[in-house]
Here is the input.
Amino acid sequence: MGKYVVRRLLWMVVVLFFVSVITFLLAFAVPGDPAKSIAGVHATPEILDRIRAELNLDEPIYVQYGTYIANLVQGDMGYSYDTQLPVATAILQRFPATVMVAMFGIFFELLIGIPVGMVSALKQYGFRDRLFTVLSLLGIAAPGFFLGLLLMYVFAFQIPIFPLGGYEGWSLLGLVYGILPGLTIGLGGAAWYSRMLRSSMLDILGADFVKAARAKGLPERTVVWRHIMRNAWSPIVTLLGMDVGWFLGGVLVIEVVFSIPGIGSQAWNAIQTQDTPMIMGTVLFAAMLVTISNFVVDLAYTWLDPRVKYS
Amino acid sequence: MRTHRWMVALMAVLAVAALAAGLAACGGDSGGGDSGDTGGEPVQGGTLKVAFQGEPTELDPAIAWEIESWAIERLCYQTFLTYEPKAGEPGTALIPELATEVPTVENGGISADGTVYTFKLREGVKFAAPVSREMTAADFKYSFERMMSEPLAPATFFYTGVVGAQDFIDGKADEVEGFKAVDDYTVEITLEKADSSFLMAMTMPFTSVVPKEWVEKWGKKFNRNPLGTGMYIFEEWVPGQSITMKRNPDYWEEGKPYIDAMDFAFSANMSTALLKLQQGDLNILGDGIPAADFVRVSQDPKYKDRIISDNQIAWYYVFMNVLEKPFDDMKVRQAVNYAIDTAKVQKLLKGQAKALNQVFPAGMPGNDPDATFYSFDPEMAKQLLSEAGFPDGFKCTFYGHNVDPFPTLAQAIQADLKAVGIDASIKLMDRATYWDFISMKGSNAGIGLSDWYQDFPDPSDWIGPLFTNPIEGGANSSFWESTEVNDLYAQAITELDETARLELYGQMQDIIMEEAPTAPLYQPVWNGMATENVGGFYIHPVWIQNYQDYWLTDAGTPAE
Here is the structure.
């Protein structure tokens, strides 16, 4: 197990290295000039040259990349071209908002997805199963920006119980700002969870050990929780692991709809202004979160299912 | 399983509510209108809430150059001169800000040969607390040299005409020789040669006066901790969320500012910003009404009366690269001018545009309201194409970037060109890439879209960058040049007599329109919106939304 953990951690470094190379190359492959993004279209060629020199944009790409990695290894992610803020500071300033959205998103996904999936499986082809199937398809199909605006229109404008978007930091009152964005993610995401749980439970429902448990006269509650669910968790945990990494990297659409200053919109701004240090920072940060959460999920399997062993 | 009934109920409620909301949102009647009331006499007090879609990149006046940064910088920073706080052309007149008067030859502020400018400064103006000391001419000199030596400063080119400025930038001198603090209240600036647009360049926030001790105290973080002589004191910047400012109690101007506190919110989503405005949680849309929402908003009875529109001093146009065939032929370029229906473009951009058929937009001195250079005349266009040797037209690629309204414009123009036999295929690219692309000779872009927004309301800001000096990486995408225009331009720059100067720009416009390196399309219209209780709301031709001029009618005490 110890060896496995070390190997996985080393692989993470390799993955992040390749992500950094590809992102850097992509940022350069795009034609256009970061100096022009900074100075604007009115700037003269002399001004552009001066800015390029200041930001080392006049060096060959491998020198620029080398400098970047050398600094990164020492914990220096550089300065944003656009705002002149240290990239690490800028990301950490925005991360709490993203965490709040991700937390509520996952909460609502599970809160809605798991019960719905269970009912659908246990009452297969019943009215509720069919209703949930239709609603799930709607949930999957409805674009986040539409669902988000709708929820906000109803629950923040017509019935003003929630704020009209925004973010007020992590406080008891501030948490209210996370509910509607979380619900928007949750309604879309719950659909996936419920479908996944339904099919995984249906596979197990017909298994011999379930029949045996029922034959023993165990109450249905015990059969469901102790025998069926324990075996049906794995795909949910996999999905969860991917979602955690994905949401923490920032959900752009939700951030835009709800005016939340998170990492997603930060990355988007950086791409638009060709702010290479900021692009690199946000992409590497998101990639790191995804690899870590996948790693945690893999470790969680051994705990959820003692048959899984890594060596 | 006890939760399922509750779940079903919740989902059903959500679905029904969503449907109802959708239906409700579809309501509304048609109509449109412009209006604005001045809101009576100014009163003091209250908090003005403004929402922007973006966020200032930073607030260092030497560097920042975008609408959000300038709006906020101008609340705490000031410079020698500014513009009359009025809408339309009267708003392009210069007035003193920290200077006591606008220098002219008559008042001795400008030397007879137009090369020496003397600014007399107001006495007793203090920097805001905690600096709280008097601002003097030495501060202006420090601020100017600081800006010129800042490697990321994007606009030093406006000021390299000052004697010794280029040497200072190049590190050959340790001060700008031509920028002198004669005494505490007199700044004397010497130019290499007369420049009639120089005073306007001295209104730009780049020249704002900053206190040296404050800059040194904050170092690299100065760009997020502004402090100047302005009406407001910067209070807090919550990244991605807001900037708050409060009244400067030691401000020098009697009775100002009107509003006690300014609250700028960022990352605003337009649709929700409109809802907030309706609820009264927001007073002004910082970006105006976005093009995408304008039609909806202008037809909505709840909002339409709150819209205030005014022309922007800017233009959208088609450039034709004279280095590329067939646009090297003047007749082809004239044919394109005849082929494009600018009235159709105006209609297409519903409320966002005013058709333009000359180089200078309305509001820009030099604009001739009666001039018509090319009317929409497809037959004339065909005839000119025949004369140029293209009786059956030709094929070409029409370039643009992919951000609105360029794609819409490209399609409209493609259809107009098709009608006269020019078969243009559209090629759109990413915006940042595009500006770079059309500025390079090697791109071989023959024809495409461009736009230009004023730096200051002086025709030199159009002729200089767009119609002279066609260099790699510059803004003259037509790569067109004429010795005649070059001569007239050089003359106009040094001409101090306003009438004679505008006469020269009129001649330049005639030549440019005749040779047709561009085909004008329209000038954009700014559509602003504020709640009913915002008094004095107007659109300034240069600063667009000038927050320090507004007041809140329900705030309380009349301004002293």
